[in-house]
UniProtKB/TrEMBL annotation:
GO terms for cellular component: nucleus. Keywords: DNA-binding, Metal-binding, Nucleus, Transcription, Transcription regulation, Zinc. It holds the Pfam family Zn_clus. InterPro entries: Yeast_MetPath_Reg (IPR052202), Zn2-C6_fun-type_DNA-bd_sf (IPR036864), Zn2Cys6_DnaBD (IPR001138). This is Positive regulator of purine utilization. Residues 3-33 form the Zn(2)-C6 fungal-type domain. The keyword Nucleotide-binding does not apply. It comes from the Eukaryota. GO terms for molecular function: DNA-binding transcription factor activity, RNA polymerase II-specific; sequence-specific DNA binding; zinc ion binding. One of its GO terms (biological process) is positive regulation of transcription by RNA polymerase II. Its main location: nucleus. The lineage of its organism: Eukaryota, Fungi, Dikarya, Ascomycota, Pezizomycotina. Residues 107-116 have a biased composition (Basic and acidic residues).
Length: 135
């Protein structure tokens, strides 16, 4: 059994006697014991979080799959080739190396990092973080 409401409020040691603890008896006030809460989150909380995560993931997928209009910064960089003189016979395989040629992975990463997520998504994720990870 937990401490009575008055002792909890005053952060005082409660002897948990029934029908009234010693402190409440001495103060001549009604001694009330609240219902004991179960530890952890309320029922349905996990499902609510899973639903929210699914919604946010689907929004993120939609954002990633939406084609962007081309701007001057989206154009491919010019391709430059650097000639490399090798002095060692082991380096014969490398004669020239293309520079500035972006790989498909780089292009995808560049597009994703340049796009800013919607403000409501950022606010929602920040709210979840501060509510559940760092209260």
């Amino acid at each position: 059994m937990a401490s009575c409401e008055r002792c909890k409020q005053r952060k005082a040691k409660c002897d948990r006697r029934l029908p009234a603890c010693q402190r409440c008896e001495k103060a001549e006030v009604e001694c009330e014991y609240g219902g004991r809460r179960k530890p952890g989150f309320p029922a349905g909380h996990r499902q609510m979080l899973e639903d929210k995560i699914e919604k946010l993931e689907s929004e993120l997928r939609a954002i990633c799959n939406t084609p962007r209009t081309s701007t001057s910064t989206d154009q491919a960089p010019p391709q430059v080739t650097i000639e490399v003189e090798t002095k060692s016979p082991n380096d014969q395989a490398i004669r020239s190396m293309p520079v500035g040629e972006a790989s498909p992975t780089f292009e995808r990463t560049r597009r994703v990092t340049e796009r800013k997520p919607p403000t409501d998504l950022v606010v929602s994720l920040a709210s979840l973080y501060f509510r559940h990870i760092h209260p």
